[in-house]
Design a protein that fits this description.
heterodimer; A: about 425 residues; alpha/beta; eight-stranded parallel β-sheet; B: about 325 residues; globular
Chain lengths: ~425, ~325
Amino acid sequence: MSAPIWIRGGRVIDPASGRDGVADVLLSDGVVAEVGSPPRPSAAETVEAAGLYVFPGFIDLHAHLREPGREDAETVASGLAAAAAGGFAAVCAMPNTNPVNDNGAITDYVASRARAAGAARLHPIGAITKGQRGEELAEFDEMKAAGAVAVSDDGMWLADGSMLRRALEHAGLVGLTVVQHAEDATLSGGAPMHEGAVSTRLGLRGQPAAAEAAAVARDVLVAELARGRLHVAHLSTARALGIVRSAKSKGIRVTCEVTPHHLTLTDGEVARTGYSTNAKMNPPLREASDVEALVAALAEGAIDAVATDHAPHHPDDKAVEFDRAPFGVVGLETAAAVVFDRLVRPGRLTLARFAEVFSAGPARCFGLPGGSLAAGAPADVTLFDPSAAWRVEPASFRSLSRNSPFAGWELTGRPAATIVGGRIVWRA
Amino acid sequence: MTKAGLRSKDLLGIEPLSPEEIALILDTAESMREIGRRPIKKVPALRGRMVANLFFEASTRTRFSFETAERWLSADSLNFAARGSSVEKGESLLDTARNLQAMSPDLIVIRHGSPGAPHFLARHLRAGVVNAGDGAHEHPTQALLDALTIRQRFGRIQGLRVLIVGDIAHSRVVRSNIWLLTKLGAKVVVCGPPTLLPPRIGEMGVEETTDFDAALPESEVVMMLRMQLERQGGALYPSVREYFRRYGLTAERLGRAHPDAIVMHPGPMNRGVEIASDVADSPRAVILDQVANGVAVRMAVLYLLLGGHPWEADA
């Protein structure tokens, strides 16, 4: 058992317990012992936090760690090290590995790799259907017993309505959230970017916003029917957001997340960068009006969480023609800093909301432990230095991949240390 | 002739060019035409320079046109066609390009099915890159030769009404022409069925319509595009017959255009699909002028990008 940790003099921001003020935090026996002015135990390790923010440990609902199958792009260990360096104390890992995480043995394998890594926590997400083929439900109970916190066929929208209904009903029984990548592929055609004025100018096929909105509309109606718990992954359009808002107002149990890139970049990035494949992800970068709507919804609470959709790809796989490149960008090491610099510093997102969308918000979406600094909560803490100025240099990432759309960005504010289960797993 | 008036080492599209750069290329092309009329069609302007022609997509006239331009300017050419090459063995575009780079070409001419492939090469290579058509994005030398042809007929581009008809969505020729013609002050109208008009094309500064007959009056230039049936799988228009009824250029339809109207086509033509045979062969059609101008325009582009030395003295 590691020594207690006494975090001294930081500004503790914990929306879950309504706290915002300078306080000391004592972590002991893997949980939060006290926040306020606890006496320093003689054996405790002191962490000086004057000038720093002390947040509940950040939680990422959506990452691809590539193990098993593509350990050249990322491993559980490298992904969790990247997470810790980005201030994340916990990461939910999507099941689209090779083989797919669609049974308890794979779930257990991924979880055991995470324990060996000793960095951020890993919460596996199991597949909804075997092999993510959309044909046969996977065994939810068995995956849950091995640590799964949600189910998703991420990357593949479960298009069969009856199958989704059964998945929601079954997941309700087991106590899991169903996560959908909302994309009607018959409308999107798998196009490499957003459909709009920019795709027309660049001569690229586009995915219309309606491909996402149509999928979300169908999904929330089925969630209402099944009385299940639905989470919409990486929401990217104002249209789909409107449907989520309306579903929430009707009491349908739906939550949603947004990525840092959809909050800060538009489809114009594809043109500006001369078809850089680091501007290619799915859902694609949308339009300024979508970005505005997403930022506003995040600020006022209609969006529950920021999630990275961290999608590492080997540099060789991305160094190809735009329309042939795989979708996805890395995000674990930039997410909190980008959102802080671009939304919190200009006053578009309050500090309390920032804390919430990275901690309590995501914890609520999947019913995860953490997300709070209340006494007895897991001793997961993110220290954040709001005045550190730095430049995003993918070459220095802990991730094995470099495919960041934020390369070269000058940012102010970054995580200073990440504590998981009362142990410091990363320090700037 | 002044040396290199272009700002970039590459010609990736018309979009980044200024009207002055476009005019410079057209004026240079005008002076290049004279070389083609000489008994010995060769000047030493690019002697000792190597140009690699990379054609990842089938092309007849564009490839021949570039090769002819290279020969007349005395450049050395290296021809690379995707078929029979290491691309078929799974080599990436980047590796192919790096291998070529090792042979130190001064310029690479690329035709590729992926929009942005020339930009990708330009980022990774020291050599200059000329886009000879990238997917549905741009085909800058085609627009330049079209502009040269229009300018020869009307003496200007400014103020003309240019009607472009057909598969607008999948056409790189359209995009390059829109940039060029609007930069030089023409009014551009694009016309086709809704399934072949890309979303928000109007934001490129053109008028869009589905009504060919209504768009014809006052048009000084009618540019017909190849109906790319091979790309469509039947879903975008019911049949060729149906298409011709509404969008085929017949002599009767042409009668509604401006009395001096010219008919253009980037080729290859589908006679009876987008253009009636008698129209294609009429004096109004400048299609073969376009081909001849293609060589002159490509000579100008190669010359300006490679900063070739003046040739008059030793011709």
